[in-house]
Amino acid sequence: MFDFSNKTVFIAGGTSGINLGIAQAFAEVGARVAVLSRSQEKVDAAVASIAAHGGEVIGFSADVRDYAAVEEALKAAHQQFGDLDVLVSGAAGNFPAKALGMSANAFKSVVDIDLMGTYHVLRAAFPLLKKPGASVINISAPQAFIPMAYQMHVCAAKAGVDMVTRVAALEWGKEGVRVNSVVPGPIEGTEGMARLAPTPDSQSRVADSVPLGRFGTTQDVANCCLWLSSARAYYVMGTVIPVDGGWALGGASELGKTFDALLSARE
Ligand code: HXC
Ligand code: NAP
């Protein structure tokens, strides 16, 4: 259905979970894939697993909070693979904590990874993008538009990410660069859900709160990214697209209510 042979895809945070699933999906349809994250061990494992899905793969160890390191990795990927056809910014951090129960540095850490990291990735990648034609995808979260208790840091950071999407779309459209956000719902088997719904009880409450009645898969999110980066979506621009089984229609706002029980059980 999709053919990304001879295309280059760079995925920041592409070494585990949803972003790794996206990387594997692009490799399966022929793309050259570059991934970046902090842990060299995770980078090495991801490169091997993406390569098993086909295509050429390279990996970089860097922290998205470090602009110079991000720029260096992007330039190295560009040198090896050429102009970037697809850029995915998905590095993120999350933990449930009340606003008054976390330090200022804890709040800042998440804002620095999610929001500053996304800005760094887009800022450093822009000169290296294929123009016209590139597709830029920021991985957001329902917290961007649904206020959730214990998630002030994430809500603030991801709302910022969606505004980065919209303003970049306004400024880069004339050069033929499309920018969109993809908003996963609760995705099974991921670090994010392990942190936010770690018990069987909280998991079944989450599944019940999704109109489609189930967690999503990394493939569900990857399918949207493939479509969004294909010729079939060439007029889709500056949008924020949930891939969440309808969770954002109401169920997602329930998640914050589970954290009281969760965190008091840990104390
Ligand atoms: C309160 C916490 C905390 C917690 C860390 N901190 N965990 N505060 N409750 N559970 C505080 C620390 O005490 C420290 O503050 C500050 O945060 C920074 O912590 P470090 O460990 O020094 O930071 P760092 O090594 O940079 O790690 C960043 C991190 C970490 C965000 C804290 O959890 C991380 O690396 N996460 C990446 C993986 C991840 O989170 N994946 C899930 C993404 S899912 P002090 O004051 O002590 O210095 C997602 C959305 C899911 O994003 C949406 C689902 C619907
Ligand atoms: P994950 O497996 O923890 O993925 C996060 C990725 O980002 C990892 O590759 C991690 O690798 C990297 N990363 C984290 N901090 C980094 C930093 N400072 N610099 C560079 N790389 C960094 O989490 P996930 O649950 O799959 O979430 C992936 C994305 O989907 C995130 O943007 C998240 O907000 C979004 N999302 C997830 C869900 C869900 O259900 N899980 C729902 C909505 C939205 P290293 O540790 O090696 O750095």
Give your account of this protein's structure.
The chain has 267 residues and is of the alpha/beta class. The chain has one domain (8-266): 3-Layer(aba) Sandwich (Rossmann fold), CATH 3.40.50. The protein is built from 9 helices and 7 strands; from the N terminus they run βαβαβαβαβαβαααβα. The protein has helices at 17-28, 40-51, 67-81, 104-125, 152-172, 191-196, 200-208, 218-228, 259-266; strands at residues 8-12, 32-37, 57-61, 86-89, 135-139, 178-184, 240-243. A 7-stranded parallel β-sheet has the order 3-2-1-4-5-6-7, with helices on both faces. Strand 4, helix 4 and strand 5 form a beta-alpha-beta unit. The longest helix has 22 residues, at 104-125. It is globular and about 50 Å long. Bound molecules: hexanoyl-coenzyme A (HXC) and NADP nicotinamide-adenine-dinucleotide phosphate.
